[in-house]
Design a protein that fits this description.
The protein is α+β, with helices and mostly antiparallel strands. The protein is built from five helices and six strands. Helices cover 22% and strands 30% of the residues.
Length: 155
C-alpha cells in the first residue's frame, strides 16, 4: 500500500482568503485547519517556471515559498510531504509564520526513526496549534490518514 501527501495546511479561513485566486479546493481537516492539496493543476498554477525541489521538498514549486511566507502574515502556514510504500518512506515539513520561515524544513528519510519531538508533519501541526489526546500524535489528531493520495482529498 502506498501513501502520498503534498499539501499546504493552515487556518481554514486564512487559507481560504489566501488561495481565493487559485483554482484549488480546500479540505477542512479539523481543529480549525484546512488542507490545500498540491495537485498537478495547482503545481502548474503556482510554479514560477524554475521547477520543483525547493528547500529539499519534492513537490514544492519554485517560487511558491514566497507565497507561503506572504500567507503566513496572518498566522502559521505549513507545507508538508509524506511518501510511503509498504510502510517505508519519508516525511518533510516546514512552517512559515509572520512572513518568515519559522520551522526550518524537517526531513526524516527512509529507514530513519522519528526524532523524540515527533514526525516532521506532527511537529508542523503542533506549530499550527493542533491538540492531541492521550496516545495520539498530531498527524492522527487531524486524521491525515483519511486518504491515501493527495488527489483523493478533493474527490
Amino acid at each position: 500500500m502506498s501513501y502520498d501527501l503534498h499539501a499546504v495546511i493552515a487556518d481554514e479561513e486564512a487559507l481560504r482568503v489566501a488561495a481565493r485566486d487559485l483554482s484549488a479546493r480546500l479540505v477542512p481537516i479539523g481543529q480549525g485547519l484546512s488542507l490545500l492539496p498540491m495537485t498537478d493543476a495547482l503545481f502548474e498554477t503556482v510554479a514560477d517556471g524554475s521547477g520543483a525541489g525547493v528547500l529539499g521538498f519534492r513537490r514544492l514549486p519554485a517560487g511558491f515559498e514566497k507565497a507561503l511566507a506572504l500567507w503566513s502574515a496572518g498566522g502559521p502556514v505549513a507545507y508538508v510531504e509524506a511518501e510511503y510504500f509498504g510502510g517505508v518512506g519519508e516525511q518533510r515539513a516546514a512552517v512559515w509564520d509572520g512572513g518568515t520561515l519559522a520551522l526550518a524544513p524537517l526531513h526524516v528519510d527512509e529507514g530513519e526513526p522519528f526524532p523524540s519531538a515527533g514526525s516532521p508533519i506532527s511537529q508542523a501541526l503542533r506549530r499550527l496549534g493542533v491538540v492531541t489526546s492521550a496516545g495520539q500524535d498530531e498527524f492522527s489528531a487531524v486524521r491525515l490518514d483519511r486518504h491515501r493520495h493527495s488527489d483523493s482529498w478533493i474527490a
